[in-house]
Amino acid sequence: MNPLELLQALDQPALDAVYKRSLLTTQGWSDPDLATIRSLARVLGGFDRAGLSTALCPDELAWAVFFDQSTRTKSAWAGASARLGMHPVIVDGSSTQVSHGETAVETGAMLGMNSHAMGIRHDLILGEGNTFIRDVTKGINEYLDATDDPRSVPVVNLQCDVDHPTQTMADLMWLEEKFGDLSDRNITVSWAYSPSYAKPLSVPQGMVTLLTRQGANVTLAHPPGYQLIDECMDAAHSNATNGGSFRTVDDMDEAFRGADIVYPKSWGAHDLMLEKVDANAAGDTAELAAVEQRALARNAEYTDWICDEDRMALTAAGEALYLHCLPADIGSEVSPGVMSKFKVDVAREANYKVYVVMALLAAAKVPDILPRLTEIAQEN
Ligand code: CP
Hints:
With 380 residues, the chain is of the alpha/beta class. The chain has helices spanning 3-6, 12-16, 31-49, 72-83, 104-114, 129-146, 165-179, 202-211, 230-240, 252-256, 270-281, 285-299, 309-313, 336-341, 343-365, 369-379; strands at 61-66, 87-92, 117-122, 155-160, 186-191, 217-221, 245-249, 261-265, 321-322.
């Protein structure tokens, strides 16, 4: 499809509805607004692949702070802002004054003053990350209001304790490319064994909340004690009442049987993730390390929770699509053979994130985006 044809998927009133918006969770956005971002992401991806420059926000600073490691999301943030003509800067959260106690609201005010868009990853401690991102957003907006500054400084959640919305939107775009409409598709989000670290709960939480809005039959599988937070479970159950279904099982084989799509990945046991909250609040790094060891010992009780060839054979015609947000623990979460079979698929799944971030920044910052993109397409 040529760039002008791609633009037919966009609609300026729908884009107006997402102007100046921050994305803190997908659950906080309506279905039409999320669909607008995916449509814009498809257009921007098409323009990028056609070699068209979309430097819509020149001379602007896209600042991101990460309180956890990242490869894909950091590079997606940098790649997205660079493609929009912005200057990406990515900072380790521990190097900021937050580590000396400066509050999120104060931090937001300073960042709103100096930057034009803000990404945040704060995913390791339950109850903290999403609150931090909300407080930064509050600080930014209070500063802009108090100074009559008309700039839009959108905030993008780059993974918190509740959700990983740029990941799940990328996952959904990949599923839409493969399957089109997801109504009545059987999708399994399953815990899988990991010896590496107690991973955040935000990807499975984000997936069950977003996929239950697509009319799919969503199955969540995990061993006892690995439940997700109530807020996301309640949202998934509520979303599923508009079509599709949502159930939880404690048997990985049962969850894989008849699935069209499987998303097996690890996360930390709920009670131990809560123990980390207390240790972190006390600043007790020794206890944090001890809890992490207990979390890995707990995971090791379930080494048979692996996505391997035998389990994939249980899926619909033995041909389910395997998803993973990456990085996967190969040999623990997934067998080498299954990962090898799907290695291009998971890379294409990951590739959508750069266009999701681009779409969020462009939609929030460029009020006349449709005529601007039309002009770019016509000039080329
Ligand atoms: N999937 C994902 O968020 O990857 P990173 O941790 O590398 O950003």
